[in-house]
């Protein structure tokens, strides 16, 4: 297919799809084992951890292909990358990053705060930092061994550094209170996490104090590309399901695909899916050349998740009542894609970020 992808990536994509379609019926554990053996599980990890240090385009293709193969639990196929902990100091690497990449520890990300009266802040007490505050929506918080917490270090009466920071907090230290998990529409579980005078050392700070926002954005950027890719794969998979459905006999006499009104809707779905994939690949290529292209990847996250939502909604409409039966692929995709328009940044808020990037910083391209 003339996607203008390098030949090795074309082959990688088509071999991966064949492999995943063959393996998609396996249990989570078996699938993970097969993907580890195949080398796909560690694809986002650095070479020194046995990964391939894949660039944005190869990563985007990988996530897209997993969703296109109809696999909803992406983490069974592709394991964690370093994310926000990339380039962390040796202490964090030894205690958290390496065990996480080896699959021995689970990390979570604590950013969202619903309660403005209890923001997450740290104050200096001697040589240590004391954290207080509450995070409202930490995915897998109840399962995690540690969390990467975005917070603000308050200025003290000394010359110690202050400002936004990302701090690794061990879930087992005194004062970390993890609430009972709650489940969102897509079936994923999250917890509220309260920090009550939690003491951490400056070694637990990822990078330096003051650079918390760029560091959080670096992690979020990878997550947004991943979400754009998964959304694109979901739209492609929905198209394959609908195409099959349009070709089977229907009570109208022929097939649904014979009806002009259906073709009109189907054509629109194809055009939207085409534009979604084009957007993903363009954003990934831009990231290959300019790794801090937050405005472009944010635009892709919004566009791909919103468009995939529209495609999946139309797919449900064309497939009819059967599509909404629990356990049907479109039913699960419909719930998942709705969550993806909030997770990793709500669509409207990201639209504001893209406007701000252009109007206030002259950043981003069209
Ligand atoms: C499945 C899932 C997983 C998640 N995982 C995590 C996680 O692991 N860690 C984490 O920290 N968070 C997580 N979140 C939380 C997620 O990041 C937030 O839900 C999201 O950023 C939106 O924030 P909010 O819910 O506080 O909504 P709000 O910020 O209150 O926004 C709600 C709506 O209000 C409107 N709005 C808000 N502000 C403005 C404005 N300035 N101008 C115009 N309109 C505005 C928008 O329409 C927006 O959609 C997850 C969410 C989901 C759904």
Task: Please describe what this structure looks like.
With 366 residues, the chain is an alpha+beta fold. The chain has 3 domains: 75 residues, no CATH class; 101 residues, Beta Barrel (Butyryl-CoA Dehydrogenase, subunit A, domain 2); 149 residues, Butyryl-CoA Dehydrogenase, subunit A, domain 3 (Up-down Bundle), CATH 1.20.140. The chain is 47% helix and 15% strand. The protein has 9 helices and 9 strands. Strands 1, 2, 3, 4, 5, 6, 7, 8 and 9 form a 9-stranded mixed beta sheet that branches. A hairpin with a 5-residue loop joins strand 7 and strand 8. The two termini are 26 Å apart. The structure holds flavin-adenine dinucleotide. The site of flavin-adenine dinucleotide has 21 residues, from strand 1, strand 3 and helix 9.
What's this entry about, in short?
With 366 residues, this protein is α+β, with helices and mostly antiparallel strands. It is 47% helix and 15% strand. The longest helix is centred in the middle third of the chain and has 35 residues, at 212-246.
CATH superfamily membership of the largest domain: Butyryl-CoA Dehydrogenase, subunit A, domain 3
Order of helices and strands: HHHHEEEEEEEEEHHHHH
User: pLDDT under 50 segments (min length 5)?
Assistant: none
Mean pLDDT across the residues is 95
CATH topology type of the largest domain:
Butyryl-CoA Dehydrogenase, subunit A, domain 3
Gross morphology is elongated
| Spatial gap, N to C terminus | 26 Å
CATH architecture term of the largest domain: Up-down Bundle
How helix-rich are the residues, as a percent range? 40-55%
Specify Rg, calculated over alpha carbons: 22 Å
| Count of distinct strands | 9
Q: How much strand?
A: 15-25%
Secondary structure category:
alpha+beta
CATH class of the largest domain: Mainly Alpha
Ligand list? flavin-adenine dinucleotide
Number of domains: 3
Report the major sheet: 9 strands, mixed
Count helical runs: 9
């Amino acid at each position: 297919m003339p996607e203008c992808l390098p030949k090795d990536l074309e082959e990688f994509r088509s071999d991966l799809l064949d492999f995943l379609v063959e393996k998609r019926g396996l249990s989570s554990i078996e699938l993970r084992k097969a993907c580890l053996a195949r080398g796909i599980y560690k694809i986002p990890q650095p070479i020194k951890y046995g990964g391939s240090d894949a660039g944005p385009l190869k990563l985007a293709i990988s996530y897209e292909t997993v969703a296109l193969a109809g696999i909803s639990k992406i983490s069974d196929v592709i394991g964690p990358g370093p994310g926000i902990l990339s380039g962390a100091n040796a202490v964090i690497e030894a205690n958290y990053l390496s065990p996480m990449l080896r699959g021995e520890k689970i990390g979570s990300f604590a950013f969202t705060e619903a309660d403005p009266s209890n923001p997450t802040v740290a104050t200096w007490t001697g040589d240590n930092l004391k954290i207080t505050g509450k995070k409202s929506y930490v995915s897998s918080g109840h399962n995690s061994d540690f969390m990467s917490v975005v917070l603000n270090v308050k200025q003290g009466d000394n010359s110690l550094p202050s400002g936004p920071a990302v701090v690794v907090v061990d879930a087992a230290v005194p004062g970390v209170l993890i609430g009972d998990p709650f489940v969102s529409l897509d079936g994923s579980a999250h917890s509220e996490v309260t920090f009550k005078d939690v003491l951490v050392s400056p070694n637990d700070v990822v990078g330096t104090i003051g650079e918390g926002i760029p560091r959080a954005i670096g992690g979020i950027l990878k997550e947004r590309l991943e979400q754009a890719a998964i959304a694109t794969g979901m739209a492609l998979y929905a198209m394959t399901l609908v195409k099959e459905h349009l070709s089977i006999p229907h009570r109208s006499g022929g097939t649904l695909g014979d009806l002009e009104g259906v073709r009109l809707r189907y054509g629109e779905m194809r055009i939207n899916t085409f534009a979604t994939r084009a957007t993903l690949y363009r954003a990934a290529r831009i990231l290959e050349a300019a790794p801090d292209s937050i405005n472009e990847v944010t635009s892709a996250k919004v566009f791909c998740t919103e468009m995939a939502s529209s495609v999946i909604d139309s797919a449900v409409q064309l497939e009819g009542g059967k599509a909404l039966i629990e356990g049907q692929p479109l039913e699960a995709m419909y719930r998942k894609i709705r969550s993806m328009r909030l997770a990793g940044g709500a669509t409207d808020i990201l639209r504001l970020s893209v406007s701000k990037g252009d109007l206030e910083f002259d950043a981003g391209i069209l």
